[in-house]
Amino acid sequence: MQKNIFKRLDESDSDVIRKLFVNVFTKEPWNDDWSDENQLRLYIHDLIGQDNSLTFGLYEGNELIGVSMGHIKHWYTGTEYFIDELCISTEKQGRGIGTLFVGRIEKACRELGMTHLYLLTGKDAPAYKFYLKNGFCVAESTVAFAKDLKNR
């Protein structure tokens, strides 16, 4: 078994990040349609190409098997890492790699002086139970709102 390597990523890693992202999120249970290459490039750039972006990768040998893309947010309670996207290669899921990756993200964020991790996921998504298992709690006082502008 090859050693897992954890490191920060940036826009120079966007091709390999896009490949992993599409490989994971176009399959069950997500079934996202990322066939518009330009939209995909813009989305990944939004996540990893900003001044406050923070992206971590987990490699097995030379293969990117996990990525966390998010941003740093300075708040009155401390500096936070808001994870916009986190995924593990579909073929590697169920082996404890996600738990290892989240643990390394937590350690890196603590070393950077951060006080909180935040993320959103669906209550019916498999990731929901994964995050609970890994020490995240539901922020009962917070609710996510959305409004569809194209159908109004």
Number of strands: 5
SSE order: EHHEEEHEH
Query: How much helix is in the residues?
Result: 25-40%
| Category from helices, strands and their pairing | alpha+beta
Main beta-sheet strand count, sense and barrel state: 5 strands, mixed
Estimate the global geometry from the Cα principal axes. Answer: globular
Question: Strand content of the residues, in percent?
Answer: 25-35%
Overall pLDDT score:
95
Unreliable runs: none
Rg (C-alpha, Å):
16 Å
- End-to-end distance: 53 Å
SS summary, helix count: 4
Strand order of the largest sheet: 1-2-3-4-5
SSE arrangement:
Layout: E1 4-9, H1 14-25, H2 37-48, E2 53-60, E3 63-75, E4 78-88, H3 97-111, E5 116-119, H4 126-133
Parallel strand pairs: 4-5
Antiparallel strand pairs: 1-2, 2-3, 3-4
Describe the fold and architecture:
The chain has 4 helices and 5 strands. The protein has 152 residues and is of the alpha+beta class. The chain is globular and about 50 Å long.
Summarize this structure as a short list of keywords or feature phrases.
152 residues; alpha+beta; 5-stranded mixed β-sheet
In short:
It contains four helices and five strands; from the N terminus they run E-H-H-E-E-E-H-E-H.
